[in-house]
Write a structure and sequence with these properties.
The protein is mainly alpha-helical. It has a domain of about 100 residues: Winged helix-like DNA-binding domain superfamily/Winged helix DNA-binding domain (Arc Repressor Mutant, subunit A, Orthogonal Bundle). It has seven helices and two strands. The protein has a two-stranded antiparallel sheet with strand order 1-2. A hairpin with a 2-residue loop joins strand 1 and strand 2. The chain is elongated.
């Protein structure tokens, strides 16, 4: 078991709530040509490599028919392609394409730009204080990646 952070439960809840609210704000501010599930699926494929539709459905928490429909939509848009599994020719693997990677890069750029616009509203002292938390924010992201990779 991982040791818990040395925060009171109230401080932990306030901090978690503030981070969650900020992430929700960023998601609302970024224009969406592609659904959040589609972006998440593309990011999973980029991070973990080709996957079966059944695996993607489990990772994304959707039904297999829903994932099949999403993959078909992404395939038509040129963001993914299906390839035969070298280990089992009867199985198709879904792979992210260069177009899918470009879509992810643009979405990340737009999200970062949205946050940058919010940062511009901070005073110099506030910005400096937030900058001091950067290593901790990066560590939270690292913990998330470790948990996702362990569950993949």
């Amino acid at each position: 078991m991982t040791p818990r952070a040395a925060l009171s439960s109230g401080d932990r809840d306030r901090l978690a709530g503030a981070i969650y609210a900020l992430s929700a704000t960023v998601l609302r501010r970024v224009p969406r040509e592609v659904s959040l599930t589609a972006i998440s699926t593309l990011a999973t494929l980029e991070r973990t490599g080709p996957r079966r539709i059944t695996e993607l459905a489990v990772v994304q928490g959707v039904s297999q028919p829903s994932m099949t429909s999403l993959v078909t939509t992404l395939e038509r848009a040129g963001h993914v392609e299906r390839r035969s599994d070298p280990a089992d020719g009867r199985v198709a693997l879904v792979c992210v394409t260069d177009s899918g990677r470009a879509t992810l890069r643009e979405r990340r750029r737009a999200g970062a730009q949205s946050v940058a616009e919010l940062l511009d509203g901070l005073s110099a002292q506030e910005a400096t204080g937030l900058l001091a938390a950067l290593p901790l924010l990066e560590r939270l992201r690292e913990l998330d990646e470790q948990q996702r990779d362990a569950g993949s």
